[in-house]
Amino acid sequence: MSELYPLKFETILKEKVWGGDALVTRFNKKSQASLHIGESWEISAISGDLSVVSNGFLAGNNIEELIEVYMGDITGDSIFEKFGNEFPLLIKFIEAQEDLSIQVHPGNDLAKKRHKAYGKTEMWYILESNKDSKIYTGFKEGVTKDMYEESVRNGTIQDLVNVENPETGDTFFTPAGRVHAIGKGTVLVEIQQTSDITYRIFDWNRKGSGKDKRELHIDLALEAIDFNQSGKNKIRIEPVLNQTVNLVSCEFFNTNLISLNKPVDKEYYFNDSFVVYICLEGEFELCWDGNSEKITKGETVLLPAMIKEVTLKPAKETLLLEVYIISEYSD
């Protein structure tokens, strides 16, 4: 069996009525069609949208096929034991030119019971925003179930949701059960569990493709909502040059921010997991065992778990996210 190497994937572009052109013009996504690109799926194990390798001798194989052959060498033995051939994270770039629906995601237990699927805890790292951009996240303090149900009847739920003004470099962590929405004028990276289950609660009275309003999932959402998920949620952690700083750590993923202007050595013997690098600014060479792969702004690469030592060599000052699962996570 040939040696594994850092894997790039063909991006899966999603056209959305609320999308724009930022992912194509500023984050190097290739699109021949509409410039209304709302999402670019970088690594996906969602059925019907399996990521396909774009580099090296494994090009043309999808992520499920890779894990079936290489198993823990790709994901880490403990992760393969838990998730099998399914890659446990979904990585996206998102641009919202309009407010997205206010929604909530179920946790693992509820998703398993209803959908035989995983729940959806996620995080956002803000790449761009306007001065009037908003992130809707959690309820305002003191909101009760009764208040929520009345607001649904009255169409005023947006009045109960906590609103924050995002700036480039902000992080928002959204556990399953926390109501949320991405506001217009925002470009971000989303890191989430492999799940495509969303319960829409309020969609700003928009119409769907026909003349009717888009479908809502009020009853499904009620059991999924955690009314304790309220209050301010913005995480502001500044990068430290040539160091790794942690943004979010939870049982589903660990995300770090790395800023560098000189080579940085990384070792992963401490952990039994793959690593995902997402280049936000600049470009760098990912070097391992005498080989290298160039990563540019907007690109995502999957480092297989079997590769434990790499060097990140920036061509200029570079900013990237480093994502992995902590194999022995504890609160």
How does this structure look, described?
The chain has 331 residues and is mainly beta. It folds into 2 domains: 12-236, Jelly Rolls, CATH 2.60.120.10; 243-324, Jelly Rolls, CATH 2.60.120. Helices cover 15% and strands 38% of the residues. It has helices at 22-25, 63-70, 72-75, 77-83, 108-115, 145-154, 218-224; strands at residues 12-20, 37-43, 45-46, 49-50, 89-96, 102-104, 122-129, 135-139, 161-164, 170-174, 180-182, 186-193, 199-202, 234-236, 243-249, 254-260, 264-267, 275-281, 283-288, 291-296, 300-303, 309-314, 318-324. The strands form 6 sheets. It has a 7-stranded antiparallel β-sheet with strand order 1-2-5-12-7-10-14. A 5-stranded antiparallel β-sheet has the order 15-16-23-18-21, with no helix packed on it. β3 (45-46) and β4 (49-50) form a beta hairpin. The longest helix is centred in the middle third of the chain and has 10 residues, at 145-154. It is globular. It starts with 11 loop residues before the first strand and ends in a 7-residue tail after the last strand.
